[in-house]
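User: I'm curious whether this sequence folds into something compact or stays loose and floppy. Could you predict its structure so I can see for myself?
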Amino acid sequence: MYCCLMKQPNFSKIFIIKHGGNSMSENRRHMGKIKKDVIIPVAPSLSEMNNSYIDFINDLKESIKKERIKIVFAANKEMIILYWNIGKKILEKQIIEGWGAKVIDRLSKDLNEAFPEMRGFSSRNLKYMRKFAECWPDFELVQRCVALIPGGKCILKLEIKTFTSICYSII
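Assistant: Here's the prediction. I'll summarize afterward.
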């Protein structure tokens, strides 16, 4: 059972937790040491706050939401450029060293083992990356096109034709 709601000048509300008649705070430990009469500050309810605070917190929430979206878009754009670079390197190695499709399968396995928390290194996606670099060998054009992709959608989710139509619109 919880009880003993108290008001203090420095805190809006403070709870002293009791359990079955014995105060849990008597046995509360802090960094291995027993602390007697531990009090836990509790935030005031939103209804107790004035309108200026409500406006303030709403503005903060909106700012955080907008910045999170910007971060996701920036990360997606960088990921597209990374995919283009991976595709370009695969393409170069295949041309110079005569690598075949089996190397892409091996590369997929090695990248998935090296980065287990990431997705997108399947053989199929690596082939898309290679095709992307093959179709768009000019890096500056790729950067300009990526900047125009609405929402920074991942190129691997777009077909090459879709990306091509976006890029033709700026040429």
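Summary: Confidence is low (pLDDT under 50) at residues 1-26, 152-160. The two ends are 71 Å apart (CA to CA).
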